[in-house]
Amino acid sequence: MALAGHACTRESAVATRIDISPCNACPVRSMSVCSALEADELKRLADILVSVKVDAGHTLFAEGDGADTLFNVTAGTMKLYKLLPDGRRQITGFLLPGDFLGLSINDTYAYSAESVTPASLCRFPRRRLEGLLEDYPKMQRRLFAMASSELAAAQDQMLLLGRKNAKERIASFLLMLSERARRRGYAENPVHVPMSRSDIADYLGLTTETVSRTFTQLKTSRAISLLEGGKVRLNDMEILQELAEGV
Amino acid sequence: MALAGHACTRESAVATRIDISPCNACPVRSMSVCSALEADELKRLADILVSVKVDAGHTLFAEGDGADTLFNVTAGTMKLYKLLPDGRRQITGFLLPGDFLGLSINDTYAYSAESVTPASLCRFPRRRLEGLLEDYPKMQRRLFAMASSELAAAQDQMLLLGRKNAKERIASFLLMLSERARRRGYAENPVHVPMSRSDIADYLGLTTETVSRTFTQLKTSRAISLLEGGKVRLNDMEILQELAEGV
DNA sequence: GTCGCGCTTTGATCTGGATCAAGGCGCGAT
DNA sequence: ATCGCGCCTTGATCCAGATCAAAGCGCGAC
After folding, report:
1. pLDDT, tens digit, for every residue of A44-83?
2. Which among B125, B75, B101 is positioned nearest to A151, based on CA atoms?
3. Which of the four pLDDT bands, split at 50, 70 and 90, describes residue B9?
4. What pLDDT score does B21 carry?
5. pLDDT tens digits along B195-220
6. What is the spatial distance between Cα B21 and Cα B115, in angstroms, rounded to a whole number?
7. pLDDT digits (tens, 9 = 90+) for A19-30
8. In this model, does residue A5 exceed pLDDT 60?
9. How many Å is the Cα radius of gyration of chain B?
């Protein structure tokens, strides 16, 4: 299952070795794995990393692939997902610049990773990164902290998937995107929503039709405005917040 | 919200300071945070830990409480859950001996923790544990590994909550319990299912009625047998596995 | 330009699981 | 023994969201 039909565009990725300067210039260093490092440590990190650029819709790796690489998103949006044999899909997360992906318990990836928009990533060979982690406990702690906050997000998502209705899910989703944009210093309103209705549906456990109808409902009730270019203006944060919290 | 009506039985917990010998005798040491430690390191750990015993239905802490403690389950079953203001509940996990709880990103717990059965736990003051983690990177790595595998489990659960139907959820749940029992060296068939229908429902995003009906269906189709004492015999692993994987 | 294709929206209908309702059953308290 | 209370099961009905169907509407290829 895991490999079938997914690796098709893998080779199209542009991969170039880079020196330390891009690391220093990296716009997301402060929110990445490397945020914990000093200049000399950064140099050693730059030694092992490779920068990767991918088009929209590129499969970076598939569930079941050998997990020999860890990535850090530096630009664009990625999605992680799991599939059932009959094609049902659950997107387990959207990744923005600063987020990492590629952790695994055994030595295969537990999910597939695909770009939503054109994206750039830093690519760390797992082996060599592990050596680095041994030497730089700060970085180890940083990675641990990032995993912990992912775990907290996963628990929020379980609450959403298990107990919230469609309107509450959409409201939660929009507020989550807005909050994440804010914390990265991007425009938080209108929110940039680069993913398709179908991706949103598979993230929220709904169908595209229900996502579309719910957006329309929220628009009709003036809580949001749908702008062109995949932007959504949040007009009434209070109402959205109440919806999201399920009051 | 977070504190209301939850702390009622907190003080009934029996808490006694113990020396290192219980640590050496600890039946779950090999699968706990402390599995990475040598004898002398273990001694220092024993110095800061406190053993806690609780009755069934005891609230260990509530969402929003100050997160100054980390726990390791040594006996019994715990549940973690999140609530919506109107009372809807999502159980985000059941913990068995060896599992830990109490991680937090900011300094408050992101979920409530309650015992399902009478339970015992090791209690680590966060501050002092952090010091230990600095000195023993092995333990840090161990904790990281445990968090990673929790993250993987959370992603499986998102797939379940977002995309599986009732029968598939119940089958997945039973197999998960069986597998976890196996990995701990307990009886894996029949499986011990100590939690109520209502707990199962809130874990699987269903209602008690649907859980009950689905158990009955599986029983009628001979895939399982419901035994007394909260035991379930898995008669046809093949069918259950196919159901769980959504073939 | 305009053709074609994929994405989105909207409408009509269906259905799995929720909700509402009523016993049954086990067990601890009296 | 039996009362009462919390589960659990089963039945009847309902409904939010899925499914089926059919237009719009960009937008890139030619």
Report:
1. 888 888 999 999 999 999 999 999 999 999 999 999 999 9
2. B101
3. very low
4. 58
5. 999 999 999 999 999 999 999 999 99
6. 25
7. 555 677 788 888
8. no
9. 19
CATH of the domain at B38: 2.60.120.10
For residues B150 and B213, membership in a common domain is answered with no
Residue A4 within a domain = no
Report the distance from CA of residue B214 to the C1' of nucleotide D11 in Å, as an integer: 15
Q: What is the CATH number of the domain that holds B172?
A: 1.10.10.10
- How many Cβ atoms from other residues are within 10 Å of residue A13's Cβ? 16
DSSP B196: -
Nucleotides of C under 7 A from a protein CB: 7-12, 16-21
Do strands A119-125 and B14-17 pair parallel, antiparallel, or not at all (unpaired)? unpaired
> How confident is residue B176, by pLDDT bands cut at 50, 70 and 90?
very high
What 3-state class would DSSP assign to A232? strand
Q: How far is A74 from chain B (nearest CA, A)?
A: 22
- Best mutation target, A158, A198, A202, to test chain B (most B CBs within 10 A): A158
Q: CA nearest A91 in B: which residue? A: B159
- Higher-pLDDT residue of B201 and B4 is B201
Question: Which of these, A63, A247, A49, A52, lies nearest to A167 by C-alpha position?
Answer: A247
Rounded (10°) CA dihedral B154, B155, B157, B162:
140
Rounded Cα distance between A99 and A74, Å, is 8
Interface-testing mutation among B107, B151, B179, with chain A (most A C-beta atoms within 10 A): B151
Strand (E) or helix (H) holding A92: strand A89-95
Q: How many structural domains comprise chain A? A: 2
